[in-house]
Amino acid sequence: MKREKAESANNIWNKEGFLMCGLGEKNKIIAKIKYFMKCCSWSRQRIVRGYADCDKWNMFRYLQNLIPDMLQDLRNKRHGFLGEKLQTEKELEENRKRGGGGTVHFMDELPEYKEISDRYFAEEKRIEEYRNASKDEAMDMLKEYFFSLWD
């Protein structure tokens, strides 16, 4: 079995954390037990709210490791679509000639659903414009304060 990465920095069970937790303590075993308990707490926090206290203490480093890991995972494990069963034989043959891909069908192909489809896509466009404006504003703020994202 091939390992993708030796050790993720976002893994709260990493060895470095356990090695560092006993520094300055008279009893390193007790320090490691305390650190293990913190790791359990952080795991629970990630399950409940999606992030742990240790993530927000050093947010820029957490994001610097998380985003590339997520992008790499998406690249390695992307999934195709299940629409092949909905395609006609003619569409499947045309797609094979093109080198893959698929044919997409929409509601507006049926006259009775055209108006609903047009209203849906107009609203989708409005929401997408709002999301893009919000994303751009958030990214501008993130650029300005990225290295100050720590508690």
Rg, Cα atoms, Å = 24 Å
Number of strands: 0
pLDDT averaged over residues: 77
Global outline? elongated
Amount of beta strand: under 5%
**Number of H- or I-type helical stretches:** 6
Distance from first to last alpha carbon: 39 Å
Question: How would you characterize the largest beta sheet?
Answer: none
The class by helix and strand makeup works out as mainly alpha
Order of helices and strands: HHHHHH
Summarize the amount of helix as a percent range: 55-70%
Taking pLDDT < 50 over at least 5 consecutive residues as the criterion, the unreliable ranges are 1-6
Secondary structure layout:
Layout (H helix, E strand, L loop, with lengths): L14 H6 L7 H22 L3 H5 L1 H18 L12 H10 L15 H32 L6
Attribute tags:
mainly alpha, disordered N terminus, 151 residues, elongated, 0% strand
Explained architecture:
This protein is an all-alpha fold. It is 62% helix and 0% strand. The chain contains six helices and no strands. The longest helix is centred in the last third of the chain and has 32 residues, at 114-145. The model is unreliable at 1-6 (pLDDT under 50).
